[in-house]
Design goal:
Blueprint (H helix, E strand, L loop, with lengths): L1 E7 L18 H20 L12 E2 L3 E2 L2 E11 L2 E8 L6 E8 L6 H7 L9 H15 L15 E3 L2 E4 L3 E10 L2 E11 L2
The chain binds coenzyme A.
Length: about 190
């Protein structure tokens, strides 16, 4: 079962988590933290889990819940909104990732050149960006090479992605409340 939830600032949510000690905390960082953890909390409740403490929301290695390594999880936050995804690990699902961006965000060519490659194929530059970010989050746990993992290591082919020699997966894009939300699921490991 794959569950994802979207939370935006408009909801006026009453959800006050203790914010981790962070000398560089700002109001924006705090709202991103709150929104994304609220989205995760909603996912877990929909999955039949109780959420009683901050420990229930902790993610290990950007991959699975600290309290349950069979439950895959990923977060994203951007201006005004956040989202989360959780799913049970299986022999057909090894990792999940999520990203959300404002639909009117323009991806400038200088940025595009930094993360795209000639084999990439996506509906728009924004779809490509969200696909790369979601796929990166779903895959980073499996990257064990010395070389730093970067977005250019991922090839996007419409609704699928691949890291040659490592893994492959599927993508789903959805327009939601003025945001593009993209989910990535690692479905094959070539290990
Ligand atoms: C890891 C990365 C995808 C995070 O994206 P972001 O735009 O900073 O932020 P998002 O809101 O989309 O997601 C943030 C969440 O991603 C998750 N995350 C961070 N690093 C992660 C990783 N290595 N793997 C999986 N998830 C990760 C965290 O939960 C984080 O939220 P938190 O800090 O509140 O816990 C981004 O830093 C990235 O693209 N790295 C690759 C570097 C690269 O190739 N750069 C060239 C680019 S132009």
């Amino acid at each position: 079962m794959i569950i994802w939830k979207f939370i935006d600032d408009k909801g006026g949510h009453d959800f006050n988590l203790p914010y981790p000690d962070d000398p560089s905390q700002t109001a924006i960082r705090k709202s991103h933290f709150q929104n994304s953890r609220l989205a995760l909390s909603e996912c877990l409740k929909a999955h039949g889990r109780q959420v009683e403490a901050i420990e229930d929301l902790m993610i290990r290695d950007h991959h699975c819940l600290k309290k349950d390594n069979q439950l895959l999880a990923s977060l994203a936050h951007t201006r005004g909104a956040a989202c989360a995804i959780v799913a049970t690990q299986s022999d057909k699902l090894h990792g999940v990732g999520i990203d959300c961006e404002q639909q009117d965000r323009v991806i400038r060519h200088e940025i595009l050149d930094k993360f795209s490659g000639e084999l990439d194929d996506a509906e728009t530059n924004l779809h490509l960006w969200c696909a790369k970010e979601a796929a990166f989050k779903a895959s980073s746990f499996f990257w064990k090479k010395e070389k730093t993992f970067i977005l250019k290591d991922i090839i996007i082919k419409k609704d699928t992605f691949e890291i040659p020699g490592l893994l492959a997966g599927e993508l789903e894009h959805e327009n939601f409340s003025g945001y593009l939300v993209t989910k990535a699921m690692v479905t094959q490991l070539f290990l």
